[in-house]
Design brief:
Length: about 170
């Protein structure tokens, strides 16, 4: 038995293979919003107390086309000497448009919750560091974030909340 060769087009070349299966592409990465405030400058530069940092991390997903999704990773850093003595607030909304096709719903949700923010995070991290330094403060570099672990924890919490809402018992019986 002979092997079959792909059909050649009119010029003798083999037609390009059509992509099959799941596809993930980065279409565009951009800054959606950025803010830096230092309400007590320049007096705050004379303070000697140890500041406390608080980080808030949020993500929003919006469909933009048949296979396109805008993912916005918003990070807010608040540095304060005490609750009412804010040193600075730096906020970045780093966004990207991603093409995702061929994924099952659970896989799509996982990709949007893990891979997309993992792509955006280094950009947001760099911009936050530059904002803080431009504000006159020592350089600050955020530590890496495990978005897989954050996503898994979010799924666990949603499952627990759904079980509690439906009256099922979770954990000890």
């Amino acid at each position: 038995m002979s092997e079959q060769q792909p059909a050649a087009n009119g010029n003798g070349a083999t037609p390009p293979a059509q992509p099959t299966g799941a596809q993930f592409t980065v279409e565009k990465i951009y800054v959606k919003d950025v803010s830096f405030e230092s309400p007590k400058a320049p007096q705050i530069f004379n303070e000697q107390a140890q500041p406390q940092l608080n980080m808030s991390l949020n993500q929003a997903v919006q469909r933009v086309g048949e296979n396109g999704y805008e993912v916005v990773l918003k990070i807010t850093l608040t540095c304060a000497l005490a609750e009412d003595n804010t040193v600075y607030v730096a906020e970045v909304a780093q966004a990207g448009v991603f093409g995702l096709s061929g994924f099952e719903p659970a896989q799509l949700d996982a990709m949007l919750g893990t891979q997309c923010p993992s792509v955006l995070y280094p950009y947001a991290r760099q911009l936050l560091g530059e904002l803080i330094q431009a504000g006159g403060f020592p350089p600050f570099l955020l530590q890496p974030i495990n978005f897989d672990a954050l996503y898994a924890e979010g799924v666990r919490q949603r499952t627990t909340q759904q079980a509690e809402a439906s009256g099922e018992t979770v954990g000890n019986a």
